[in-house]
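hey so i finally got around to running the thing on that chain from the lab meeting. sorry it took forever, my laptop kept dying and i had to restart like 3 times. anyway pasting the input first so we r on the same page abt which one it is
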Amino acid sequence: MKTIPSIRPAVWFLAIATALVILKVAAPLFGPVVLALVIGVVLSPFAGRIDRLGAPPAVGAFLTLAASLSVILLMLFLIEPVLSEAVRRAPIIWAELRDMIASIQSALRGLDNVTDQVSQALNDSPDDPATTVEKAARKSEDAQQGVQMPGIADALLYAPAYAARLMIFIGTLYFFLLSRREVYDWISASDLAVSTANMLDAEHEVSKYFLTITMINAGFGTLIAALLMTLGMPYAILWGFVASLANYILYLGPAVFAVALLLGGIVSFDGPISFVPAAMYVSLNMIEGQFVTPSLVGRQMRVSPLLVFLSLVFWLWMWGPVGGIIAIPLLVWALAVMKRRPKALNG
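ok and heres what got predicted. didnt touch it at all, straight out
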């Protein structure tokens, strides 16, 4: 019996490690499920309002699901002409981008040649003939190597897997909206000391936070699209739409989008103006992150930057882009529940 306290930490460690491995390996299953639960928490106040009007829970869940899917389809419909044009011109854009990458690679190879010449001059010993032939072959292979664009065969190969994930997402979202109170009652009956009222308050806070961030991102994306259109940037509307989506993934999303916009500016313009779109985006993103979001979100819903960063890193490592989407809402929900937990204990 004396060895039990020393064994308990090891048991907890093994249990946590096993859970992490399962979540990582079963990402195609757990990713859509957790994403649906997070979106369900965000949309649950709307389903609750429909329920309070006297409609059956199934009707409220169905209307909420249908409304959310309709919004997504409407956005895709509005952006579809721009996407089609971008896809049509993708080979031209890719050729220009490949020429730019080839010029950079040529400059780097020239630097390698200078380094090799300096090294040979210092060592005063020529390379072995076999090594010289190997280097020449490798350089020729690098010069001819190109990145292949995905084709229809790739799309058909991955379509069933993504269709299955979509069905898992829609099914989980509907049944969570339908029976979320039963789920909360089951959790409150456990030993977690969190009541159903606490979780309903937490989901309201998460929904308020997410909707505020959505309005900020929509306005930010519209501003980016308008400014890029003023500059004459091709596909300005598409860039603005992607900018609003990238803003949901804190830190990493804006960083990746800034690099993409930099490459897009280099392809679209000549001279110093090529760097203007990326510089403009970075400046506006800093203003939005430092002043706009803190003032609109409010002090009650502010989250520690360290917790945000660690949550984002963990979930991105776990599930990739899906993890980046759920990281912040899941963190806000967990903190809201923990903030109300002492009240449940004292009550």
